Amino acid sequence: MKEIAPNIWADIINAISDQDTFVGKIFGKVEEKSGRSRYQTAKLLAFVIVAFLIFSTSAEVLCNLICFCYPAVKTIMEIEVKEKINFNQWMFYWVVFGLFTISDFFAHIIGDIFPFYWLLKFIFFLWLFMPSCRGAEKLYEKLVKHCYNRQ
C-alpha cells in the first residue's frame, strides 16, 4: 500500500518525459517557454489540482474531467489493439466510474460533511487507472471475480 504514491508519481514522470505523447509534448513546450523543468511544472500542477479539489466549489468538474479523459483515451487505444491485454482493467474501471457517477448525486451532501470527498475520490480513481497500480483490475479480481466464482 505504501508504494502506491511513489508508483503514481513514477507513472506521471514517465508520461511527462515521453516526447512521443501528447502530454510529453505539452510539458516539453512549457519547459521550453518557462525555463522551468517539466518536473517542477508537474509538482506545481499537482499542488494546484489538490488545492482545487479541496477548496473549489467546482471540484466535481475537475475530478470527473480527469477521471474521464485519460481512461477514455486508454480505453479507445485498447479497443483498437488486437490483443486485449488490458480489457478487464478498463471495462471494470468504467463500471466503477458509473457507480460513482450515480453516487455523486449525493456528493454535495457528502461534501458538506466530509470536505475532502473530491480529493479522496480523485486519489482512488488514480489508483484505479494508473498503469503501475491497475487498481480496477485488482478490485475486479478481489471482489467481483471472487464472488462470481462462488456461485
TrEMBL record:
Keyword Ligase: no
Upper lineage: Eukaryota, Metazoa, Ecdysozoa, Nematoda, Enoplea
Family to which this protein belongs: Belongs to the DP1 family.
Membrane topology: Multi-pass membrane protein
Superkingdom field: Eukaryota
Membrane-spanning segments: 44-70, 91-110, 116-133
Keywords carried by this UniProt record: Membrane, Receptor, Transmembrane, Transmembrane helix
Signal peptide (from-to): none
Gene name tied to this protein: REEP5
Keyword Transmembrane helix annotated: yes
Annotated GO CC locations: membrane
InterPro entries in the cross-refs: TB2_DP1_HVA22
Pfam families: TB2_DP1_HVA22 (PF03134)
The protein, known as: Receptor expression-enhancing protein
Subcellular location: Membrane
